[in-house]
Amino acid sequence: MIGLFDSGLGGLSVWREVAKELPSQSTLYVGDQSHVPYGPKPAETLVRYSEGITRFLREQKCRAIVVACNSASAAALEPLRRTFPDTVFVGMEPAVKPAAARTKSGVVLVLATPATLKGELFAATTARYAQGVTVIGEPCPGLVEEIESGGGASEETEPMLRAFLARGLAAGADEIVLACTHYPFVIETVRRLAGPGVEVIDPAPAVARQLRRLLREREAGGAAPTHRFLTTASDARAFARAVRELTGTDAATGRLEWTELGALTHVSVETS
CA 105, 121, 59 angle in degrees (round to 5)? Predict the structure, then answer.
């Protein structure tokens, strides 16, 4: 089984690609909506959250875990690999490498959360792959919350996106990297606002392909796959509706509860 987790609904953009790339694999998705958004939180907090969710996913027999959140990947991916060396982890990396390789203007715009832009992973990726390229990191406060509330396609979201795009487009960016898993849910609006000649990169397909490569030698599919989606928020029904709307999937949904020790306890699962 493949485990995936995010601060909320954003990682569903990665789940879609994983389910497409590995159709025989069962999945278990955790949306930590009680702590959304992850972006403004300190790295040590994100490590604690990520370790708690990972322990739960391992208890559920997940042998591969996708950290389907750029902020959590930036803060916790390497600590997770050190703490759980027998688990296959795949994280989100800002797609600076392909953007830098494809840009003709020499300017790349990265839309991300503050945690991602401040993380060592973003700095290392930019230093390694973007020599001679101007990389503009643009924090997008409030966008994750807007998408979580179901407002990704609303009229209120478009002015936000215009503001986030303005600096990079004015500088001549012809490559836009979506460095938060929530942002692909507004990718069509970003493309429209950016205009022709600007490529918008969603890294989720590349993450799914990397997972398939890693699992090819480690884990084969068995019976018909099952898919479960769990939230740490109190309203599992709203979560189930969002899962259906964003993935087109009717599957088992339910709640998880954080204990005082920071671990997760499975409370209830219901079929939508």
Answer: 135
pLDDT digits (tens, 9 = 90+) for 154-206: 677 899 999 999 999 999 999 999 999 999 999 999 999 999 999 999 999 99
Which contiguous run of DSSP H or E holds residue 161? Answer: helix 157-170
Catalytic residues, by residue number, are 69, 180
Q: What is the pTM of this model?
A: 0.89
Both 21 and 61 in one domain: the answer is yes
Asked whether residue 233 falls in the same domain as residue 169, the answer is no
Of these ranges, 123-127, 140-144, 172-176, 228-232, the one predicted with the greatest mean pLDDT is 172-176
Q: Are both 144 and 170 inside the same structural domain?
A: yes
Burial 231-247 (b: 16+ CB within 10 A, else e): bbbeebeebbebbeebb
Helix (H, G, I), strand (E, B) or coil at 97: helix
What is the rounded distance in angstroms from the CA atom of residue 109 to the CA atom of residue 130? 12
Both 214 and 146 in a single domain? Answer: no
Distance separating alpha carbons of residues 13 and 148, to the nearest angstrom: 13
